[in-house]
Amino acid sequence: MRNSESEKGAAGTIQSIDRAISVLELLAREGEAGITEIAAELGVHKSTASRLVSSLESRDLVEQLGQRGKYAIGFGIVRLAGAAMNRLDLARLGNEACRSLAELLGETVNIAVADGGVAINISQAFGSAAVATRNWTGRRTPLHATSSGKVLLAYLPEHSRERVLRERLERYTPCTTVAPEDLRAELARVRRDGYAASFEELELGMHAVAVPIFGADGRVIAAMSASGPSYRLSRERVPQLVGPLTEAATELSAQLGHFPR
Question: What's the pLDDT tens digit per position in 210-219?
Answer without folding.
Answer: 999 998 888 9
